[in-house]
Amino acid sequence: GAVVSQHPSWVICKSGTSVKIECRSLDFQATTMFWYRQFPKQSLMLMATSNEGSKATYEQGVEKDKFLINHASLTLSTLTVTSAHPEDSSFYICSARGLAIGGETQYFGPGTRLLVL
Amino acid sequence: AQSVTQPDIHITVSEGASLELRCNYSYGATPYLFWYVQSPGQGLQLLLKYFSGDTLVQGIKGFEAEFKRSQSSFNLRKPSVHWSDAAEYFCAVKEMDSSYKLIFGSGTRLLVRP
């Protein structure tokens, strides 16, 4: 139980284009979803927290117009990187928590590797 | 502010040897503590967690961790390491507020010698 999926697993795009990454909770309802960014050989950096039906809360220094987050349902959140540039290349990981599965624990997706050329 | 420290960036152990990964936290109350493992190019998998009760917690894949309040530590242990345990290990603590955010340590990379 508590499976989180991400799609796509990797994406290559041209500079200036937008990329959408999906995060789904497959077997539970996700009260909250989190989006992280991870640089090589580094820890996870929280980008934003989103609750279903509410606007996302962004961490300090994260551009909300650059990284659009939508949490339209209890099983799906999307992260859109708008007008992507090479410096946006990174590993993006989502996680989810659900009240029915012990609300204190975050379960992570497999990650999406973004390469912007 | 809360913080999590993993003092060892890399640890190398021989297959079959015992393992202990260190984690120290700063926190004002009883913390909610987690250990996650990340294989290369993958997301994080929950190994175990501690919220309250018995201070020795059993997890998946033969891992255990012990919460020691006096030392502000939550070290991860395994009696006999397998080559497949080679990965990055992250200790995390839940934020004190109601956000459910996690504060992660910097991670420890485990290398397993054949």
Structure at a glance:
By secondary structure, chain A is mostly beta strands. Chain A is built from no helices and eleven strands.
Secondary structure elements and their pairing?
The complex is a heterodimer of chains A (117) and B (114).
Chain A: E1 4-7, E2 10-13, E3 19-25, E4 32-38, E5 44-51, E6 57-58, E7 67-73, E8 76-81, E9 90-97, E10 107-108, E11 112-116
Parallel strand pairs in A: 2-11
Antiparallel strand pairs in A: 1-3, 3-8, 4-5, 4-9, 5-6, 7-8, 9-10, 9-11
Chain B: E1 3-5, E2 10-14, E3 19-21, E4 24-26, E5 33-38, E6 44-50, E7 56-58, E8 64-68, E9 73-78, E10 87-94, E11 102-104, E12 108-113
Parallel strand pairs in B: 2-12
Antiparallel strand pairs in B: 1-4, 3-9, 5-6, 5-10, 7-8, 8-9, 10-11, 10-12
What does this structure look like?
The complex is a heterodimer of chains A (117) and B (114). Chain A is mostly beta strands and 117 residues long. Chain A is 0% helix and 51% strand. Chain A contains no helices and eleven strands. In chain A, the strands form two sheets. In chain A, strands 2, 4, 5, 6, 9, 10 and 11 form a seven-stranded mixed beta sheet that branches. Chain B is mainly β and 114 residues long. Helices cover 0% and strands 51% of the residues of chain B. In chain B, the strands form three sheets. In chain B, strands 2, 5, 6, 10, 11 and 12 form a six-stranded mixed beta sheet that branches. Chain B has a four-stranded antiparallel beta sheet with strand order 3-9-8-7, with no helix packed on it. A two-stranded antiparallel sheet of chain B has the order 1-4. Chain B starts with a strand and ends with a strand. At the A-B interface, strand 5, strand 9 and strand 10 of A face strand 6 of B.
